[in-house]
Amino acid sequence: MTGKPLVSIVSAGLSKFGKMQGLYGRELFAQAAKEAFDRCPNLDPKKTVKALFVGHMGESYEHQGHTGAASANWAGLLPVPAMRTEAACASSGVALRCGVLAVLSGLYDVVMVGGVEKMTHRSTAEVTEFLAMASDFPFEQWHGITFPGLYALMATAHMHKYGTTEEQMAMVAVKNHGNGVLNPKAHMQKEITLEQALSSRVIAWPLKLFDCSLITDGASCLILTKPELANKFTDTPVHIIGSGHACDTIGLYERKELTTLNAGKLAGQEAYKMAKTTPNDIDVAEVHDCFTIAEIIAYEDLNFCKPGDGGKLVEEGITHIKGEIPVNTSGGLKSKGHPVGATGTAQAYEIYLQLTDQAEKRQVEDAEIGLSHNVGGSGATATVHIYKRG
Ligand SMILES: CC(C)(COP(=O)(O)OP(=O)(O)OC[C@H]1O[C@@H](n2cnc3c(N)ncnc32)[C@H](O)[C@@H]1OP(=O)(O)O)[C@@H](O)C(=O)NCCC(=O)NCCS
After folding, report:
1. CB of 110 closer than 6 A to ligand 1?
2. Which CATH code fits 7-123+213-389?
3. Which of 70, 204, 238, 317 is the most exposed place for a label (fewest CB within 10 A)?
């Protein structure tokens, strides 16, 4: 018996992910909100949605802060109280967690949670600098290390300790690009071969171009309500039965261990316990593959396998879309794209589609229980949510 529903998702929306030239982030958020409202005709947004929590990493990209009010305005929700949450790439995982807390508190019956980021109008050098702001300034950024550099340190530590190979990392990329082809909203819908991944240019050794997630524009959102109200709005709700959130040192240099993300592990443990589930119960998962090594570490932190066996899991096809635990059916951050503030609720959107049989070509048969895992920075923040078909 799984844990009881904490809150229910009654609708969800996602903008197209990619290079969305000529659009502001707020317009992408409006697209995502419109899809969520269109999917749920029984819900009158202006009357019913009582608060908005929106994840947004950085004002540097668009020279625009105050994202809560701006997103509420463009979603047509004014004058609802709107709050921005910021936790680097886990900004909207945290927005989702805040929405769960807000509904559970009894203060609001219906809330919207989501996230947005507009990145591609900036040069890669600028984006790299803005992203690096989520690492430690005096001991990391100041010395010039970037996110590919930080995850490269984790990758080499993993290779050294467990014998994980560049081929295994490339297999994550091949799998996720394959899934992205099945997702019409993915940024890059391009199948790649192992040879292509392995021979792509080095970004920060051992990470190559195809080991890195994409710089993307996009927005995502969900509408949450109390489980007892869910059927008022839809016949196919998805219940959130577990929510976990934990933090770690912002600097990688302060960690005892580079081959695991403790925040991810702790968030997973909290969510599994609340949901009264084990990794064996998970039918489909979206995990934070900002770099291919991060997906391998996520398998281990979420106990899909034991520490050190993550590379083998992908090699044996267990996380393939037709495998025992399909991971990143959306294409993941690798191929669907990684508009950092929008990623956490975009992962939840994919699980919502899977558990309501709306994932079309990438539908996992008979999926009942799903999991999403969202990481901020080099692991200073992590959220894990567990979902059940309503
Ligand atoms: C890897 C990275 C540096 C490449 O950027 P770049 O060198 O400026 O690449 P460009 O934008 O000039 O693109 C060159 C080509 O590579 C492709 N490309 C860019 N990034 C790619 C990626 N991550 N994966 C696959 N292909 C990619 C482009 O589509 C383009 O292809 P085309 O020539 O067929 O059009 C950039 O994608 C990156 O920084 N990714 C990581 C983002 C990140 O750190 N996020 C936060 C994680 S914590």
Report:
1. no
2. 3.40.47.10
3. 317
170 close to ligand 1 (CB < 6 Angstrom) = no
Active-site residue numbers? 89, 338
Q: What is the pLDDT of residues 16-59, one digit of tens each?
A: 999 999 999 999 999 999 999 999 999 999 999 999 999 999 99
Q: Residue with the nearest Cα to atom 14 of ligand 1?
A: 209
Task: For 234-262, write each residue's pLDDT tens digit.
Answer: 999 999 999 999 999 999 999 999 999 99
Q: Where in the chain are the domains?
A: 7-123+213-389
Cα(239) to centroid(ligand 1), Å: 36
Distance 195 CA to ligand 1 centre (A): 18
| Report field, pTM of the whole predicted structure over 0.85 | yes
What SS3 string covers the chain?
A: CCCCCCEEEEEEEECCCECCCCCCHHHHHHHHHHHHHHCCCCCCHHHHCCCEEEECCCCCCCCCCCHHHHHHHHCCCCCCCEEEECECECHHHHHHHHHHHHHHHCCCCEEEEEEEECCCCCCHHHHHHHHHCCCCCCCCHHHCCCHHHHHHHHHHHHHHHHCCCHHHHHHHHHHHHHHHHCCCCCCCCCCCCHHHHHHCCEEECCEEHHHECCECEEEEEEEEECHHHHHHHCCCCEEEEEEEEEECCCCHHHCCCCCCCHHHHHHHHHHHHHHCCCHHHCCEEECCCCEHHHHHHHHHHCCCCCCCCHHHHHHCCCCCCCCCCCECCCCHHHHCCECHHHHHHHHHHHHHHHHCCCCHHHCCCCCCEEEEEEEECCCCEEEEEEEEEC
Is ligand 1 within 6 A of the CB of residue 338?
yes
- Atom of ligand 1 at shortest distance to CA of 377? 48
Query: 334 alpha carbon to ligand 1 midpoint, in Å?
Result: 10
